[in-house]
Structure formats: structure tokens, C-alpha cells
Design goal:
mainly alpha; single chain; elongated
């Protein structure tokens, strides 16, 4: 649905998720060079795409987060952020398995936390916000009434 979704208890979860991703996006946008370094430290992406990824990801986060906060296209925005969280979870697990001692860069340079089990648990919690906030019913327009045959 494009346009505002009726506010309900699920909006509180979407609002929290949107606020978190706004904070994360702004931290990354504030220092794209440092975020590109964090992306590189994960050693997952090919070198040729790391900078493009680091420059694009925060803006996608920002747009999706604004959509959640403003309650516009909440299904799409929630799915985008949940998909991103799944990718982040894979990256964190990969870093744990490979025993990398790196900063996650999740909230830009303000986040000095090391990638590990705490970061993994935090992102699982964020994914729970997406699940709990996802609009369950589609708000479809009602069909126009059919004219009665005379």
C-alpha cells in the first residue's frame, strides 16, 4: 500500500525500527570513509564493489527508515530493513566464525562495538522489531459498488 497505514500497536515497533535505522544511517553518512573501511574489514565483498556498497547502503537505510517513521509504504520499508538485517546477521556470523576482531560499523564511527555475539543478539532483536511491526493486513481499496440492474 502506498500512503499511510492506519496507526496501531504495530506502528510502535516500526517507529522504533525506523528510529534505529535513522540513527544508523546518519552515523554512516556522517563518515562514509570510515564506513567503507568497516565494510572492507568484513572481507566478504569483492574489492571493486566495497565503496559502492558503503556509499549506497546508508541512503537505502535512510529512505526506508523515513518511510517507517512517516508510516508511508510500511510493508515495503519493513521488508527492506528486515532483508538488510538478515544480510547483516550473515556478515556478523561470518566474522564470528572467522574469528575477526573488527568493529561492526553498524551505527557509524559512534559505534565502537566489536562484532560478536552481543552484536548478533542485538540484530536479532532488531529483526524481531521488524517482524512485530510488519503490517499483517493489506489495506486494499474497497471496490466500487455495482449499479443495480433496473
Amino acid at each position: 500500500m502506498i500512503g499511510p497505514e492506519p496507526l496501531g500497536f504495530r506502528y510502535v515497533f516500526r517507529l522504533a525500527l525506523g528510529a534505529l535505522f535513522l540513527w544508523a544511517a546518519m552515523g554512516k553518512i556522517g563518515d562514509l570513509n570510515a564506513f567503507a573501511g568497516d565494510v572492507h574489514n568484513f572481507r566478504i565483498l569483492p574489492l571493486w564493489i566495497e565503496n559502492v556498497f558503503a556509499m549506497t547502503l546508508p541512503w537505502v537505510e535512510l529512505v526506508a527508515a523515513l518511510a517507517l517513521v512517516l508510516n508511508l509504504a510500511p510493508r515495503a520499508a519493513t521488508l527492506i530493513l528486515a532483508s538488510m538485517l538478515l544480510v547483516f546477521l550473515v556478515a556478523i556470523v561470518s566474522a564470528i566464525v572467522r574469528n575477526l576482531d573488527i568493529a561492526c560499523g553498524c551505527f557509524g564511527t559512534h559505534d565502537a562495538s566489536t562484532t560478536g555475539w552481543t552484536t548478533l543478539a542485538r540484530d536479532v532483536g532488531f529483526l524481531a522489531l521488524a517482524f512485530l511491526g510488519y503490517p499483517r493486513r493489506a489495506s486494499l481499496p474497497h471496490p466500487a459498488p455495482r449499479p443495480e440492474a433496473a
